[in-house]
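Title: Comparing notes on inverse folding

I've been comparing how different people in this forum approach sequence design from structure. To keep things fair, I'm posting one structure and asking everyone to reply with a full sequence. Here's the target:
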């Protein structure tokens, strides 16, 4: 379970009562990379292998499954031990800059490195009807049971014509990494897919999706100015405020068919 039962004091119209309530569970997950403590992520305690792999992928530390020599989970201690086949220069550069984070606010991306990284412009890729994107978002929202019970999670979903993977986490970056990690482990071609999320469209999320090679990113929430700028420059179709039958396209609308 990713939620905990608590007795709380509820105030309604100046009247108080003791009631049972659910809160989202949050744990620290520490990743050790090639024997060195690398980063601690605050996350919802499910799909930790996917989170680890998705994080390493979206940080540019791995490109294929063959890059991972060994991955051991210690769920009692909330540790993950990862051995990479070849020492990645990025990993050595990032060592010592680890942060305890949920992937919200400050995020888990190391900006000083990303500033110098070249992200390839996306190819044209597949186009989708507006109705397909809005229908997918409506379906995904209906799957978000943890949110309905706790109000404390974000979701991410990878979809094509139908929903492929759906994950929830306390951090929006973590939810995206879990979906990316699952697709990576399953060897799914994501170059013609859509990533849907409940979180705001920050530059960090845009960079994660660009590095994964997904051509369309859609959210119920708003984008930032830097997210729009990067998306326009790198060929990512960026959609915000996907609600009901409407959406706003902020970058590269050529993949959206009316």
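Reply #1:
Here's my take.
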């Amino acid at each position: 379970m990713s939620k905990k039962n608590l007795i709380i004091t509820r105030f309604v119209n100046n009247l108080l009562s003791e009631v049972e309530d659910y809160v989202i569970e949050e744990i620290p997950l520490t990743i050790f990379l090639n024997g060195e403590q690398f980063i601690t992520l605050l996350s919802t305690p499910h799909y930790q292998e996917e989170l680890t792999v998705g994080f390493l992928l979206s940080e540019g530390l791995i490109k294929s499954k063959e890059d991972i020599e060994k991955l051991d989970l210690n769920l009692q201690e909330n540790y993950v031990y990862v051995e990479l086949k070849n020492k990645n220069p990025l990993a050595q550069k990032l060592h010592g800059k680890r942060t305890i984070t949920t992937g919200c606010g400050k995020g888990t991306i190391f900006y000083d490195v990303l500033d110098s990284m070249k992200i390839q412009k996306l190819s044209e890729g597949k186009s989708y009807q507006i109705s397909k994107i809005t229908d997918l978002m409506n379906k995904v929202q209906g799957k978000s049971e943890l949110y309905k019970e706790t109000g404390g999670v974000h979701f991410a979903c990878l979809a094509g014509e139908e929903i492929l993977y759906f994950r929830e986490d306390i951090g929006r970056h973590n939810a995206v990494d879990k979906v990316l990690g699952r697709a990576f482990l399953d060897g799914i071609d994501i170059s013609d897919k859509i990533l849907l999320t409940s979180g705001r469209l920050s530059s960090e999320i845009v960079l994660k999706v660009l590095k994964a090679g997904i051509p369309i990113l859609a959210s119920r929430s708003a984008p930032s100015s830097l997210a729009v700028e990067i998306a326009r420059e790198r060929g990512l179709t960026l959609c915000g405020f996907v609600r009901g039958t409407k959406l706003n396209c902020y970058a590269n609308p050529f993949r959206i068919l009316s």
